[in-house]
Amino acid sequence: MLAGMLNVNQAQDTGTQFNNVTVTDSIFRNNAIKGLYIEKLSDSVFTNVQILNNGRYAPPTTLASTTLASFHAGGMDLNLKDGSYSNLTFNNLTVTGNGIGTKEGAGIMIKARGTGSDTGYSTYPATLTGVNITGGTFTDNERGIRFGEPTKNNTGPTNVAISGATIRDNIKQYTGIDGSTYGDVVNTSTVLVDAASNWWGTSVKSTIQANATGSVDFTPYYTDSGLTTFSDVKQLLNFTVPNQVGSSTIDEINHTINISVLAGTDVKVLVPTITINGSSISPISGTSTNFTSPVTYTVSSYDEETTQNYIVTVTTPIKKSGIRNTSSNITYVAGDNGKIEGVLEQRIASGRTGSEVVAIPDSGHTFVNWSDGLTTPSRSDLSPDVDITITAYFSNDVGQEVGGEIEPVTVETPTTPTPTGGEGEVSVPGSVSVVSDVFLRNLELGDEGEDVKLLQKFLNDNHFTVARGGAGAPGEETTYFGKRTQNALVRFQDVHADVILVPLGLKKGTGYFGTSTRDYVNSLLKK
What we know:
Layout: E1 3-7, E2 18-19, E3 22-24, E4 27-29, E5 34-38, E6 41-42, E7 44-47, E8 50-52, E9 74-80, E10 83-91, E11 94-96, E12 106-112, E13 126-134, E14 137-139, E15 145-147, E16 158-163, E17 166-168, E18 185-187, E19 193-194, H1 205-211, E20 212-213, E21 216-217, E22 235-240, E23 244-251, E24 256-261, E25 273-277, E26 280-282, E27 295-300, E28 307-315, E29 327-334, E30 338-341, E31 345-349, E32 357-361, E33 367-370, E34 378-379, E35 388-394, H2 450-461, H3 483-495, H4 497-500, H5 515-525
Parallel strand pairs: 1-5, 2-6, 3-7, 4-8, 5-9, 7-10, 8-11, 9-12, 10-13, 11-14, 12-15, 13-16, 14-17, 15-18, 16-19, 18-20, 19-21, 24-28, 29-35
Antiparallel strand pairs: 22-25, 23-24, 26-27, 27-28, 29-31, 30-32, 32-34, 33-35
């Protein structure tokens, strides 16, 4: 077949137009020129659609070279003309092996013709606004996703967003040298494409930049195929030094780290071991450093666009004149949902090791870690020469803040209009008051209220930016909990995973402002 789905209209044809089309769990495969070719389409959704191996190499010579613009062979060609179109949604597409070896081939082509220098259709131009591509895989095509007709400087489509997708390895196979720009996302229109929050097969910014051509905003991007870590992360996760007593206290609000070491430790030549979430840290881990005064460490983000300074202070116990500390006390405390077996209060002589204790979780729960970072449930400790308390942490009850499995708190609020337009962050009338800057309810995607606006401001103020510009940006916070608020909240939860996620047995942020996240944010706001 030439095309798996075909909608062709002559100029000023008021006949067939695809509106409110839903295509789900379908496969368009091995069509000679295009998997789908459509000239009029609005308010439509494609979900779990596979577009595979269409328009590969040159068509048979019996076909005219202009048949369905065969040199634009590929997977899906939305070549919109003569009308105003909007709201096209693509969820979890698999687009692979399309347009291979053809001059202008691509996996997906989305165009609003007749604008810019596209004079062939200037009498019957098209506009398209609202294209959302969420999730899915776009790999091994001649080009990945292309917007606009090559060389025509179309002024649309507008309000285009791609997120949560894997877009990689879309490499030129055409043997000629007269093809237009290549890449994973190619924007030949004059309007910015928002392609943030995707995985490009690498964490190297320059490589991504070379394959996101035209006006494409691709930062922040994911740095791993599991879509867990954003490129703008610049976090110091762990910092330890020899002879350390207890765990390091890392304050992510003020970006300070406080560490205590055993009495008599020479703090002028300490060699720290550092773990970060970012591209680099300076000074680097393993470098001998003088900690007689606070030392500044700088973490760079993966995309190397921003840095974060942490001030590290190391202290030693103050010795009482003429008194030698010959023993010290360790107190072991069990957190919620577990117990400790062994002697919970031990007085240990200097240089000696105390008796073993074991952290045992209650039924249905798991041991997480000790407060000093040790992850084995059993332990016996050397005398720290100062009195300390060590706490065992266990997972919380199942059901709290577990993504789509949550039953959120219901709050009666006045009816408000459904938000429309924009990038998903719009201002709507408030419905919930916030008392003393403390959050009183759980929040999720689609919620509205002044507390949503406060949450956006909190995230922006603490470098988890909701939006770079427009609704949700710093100074332009709104009362609507949209996709960008959710993405920023995921980044915040990932950074503070040890407080918010680990106690719940979670590894990745959910974007749900539930009890665990809300309590932690409230505690920060009260400081």
